[in-house]
Amino acid sequence: RSFPCPLAAYGCQLIASSKNEWKRHVGTQHIKISFWRCDLCTTTIDSDDNRTVYHNHFNRKVFFTQHLLCMHGAPTHHPSLDPTKYLVTEENIAQHQQRCHQTIPDTPPQSSCLFCYRIFTGPASWEERMEHVGRHLE
Question: Which chain positions lie within coiled-coil regions (predicted)?
């Protein structure tokens, strides 16, 4: 089975091999329902527009965790270094993950199926829609 990105008409070339991979792709690459913003990294300001601030965002928890360990954690190849001198440790990594996780307040309030005329509305409509469209693709 193949699950093409619903935004293929706009240039996205992804063809997922499973419904879960397809749902994760849409939710992390196009809709951005949640993400992790590293608050340990310094922000940068656009040189052409001082109102535009850039943050270090990660669309998946695993990528954010790797960033925390590599950029803010104690180096693993130097066991003589004191890990308490680093911001991220094995003991507090879950706190960083939880603190930095951002979600949008609401998913899209209304959406429609790509294959039939069904309309989805309400608080749980986005997940219902994704499951429904995924069943068409299966």
Answer: none
Longest dimension (CA), the chain: 64
Measured between alpha carbons, how far is 22 from 49 in angstroms, rounded to an integer?
Answer: 36
For the chain, strand residue ranges (E) read 3-4, 15-16, 34-37, 44-46, 49-54, 57-58, 101-103, 110-112, 119-121
For the chain, the structural domain boundaries read 34-103
Measured in degrees and rounded to the nearest 5, phi and psi for residue 69 equal -70, -40
Tokens read off for 24: 């994760």
Which candidate, 1, 67, 59, places its Cα nearest to that of 26? 59
Q: What is the pLDDT of residues 101-135, one digit of tens each?
A: 998 767 778 889 888 999 999 888 888 998 999 99
For 27-55, write each residue's pLDDT tens digit.
888 887 789 999 999 899 988 988 888 88
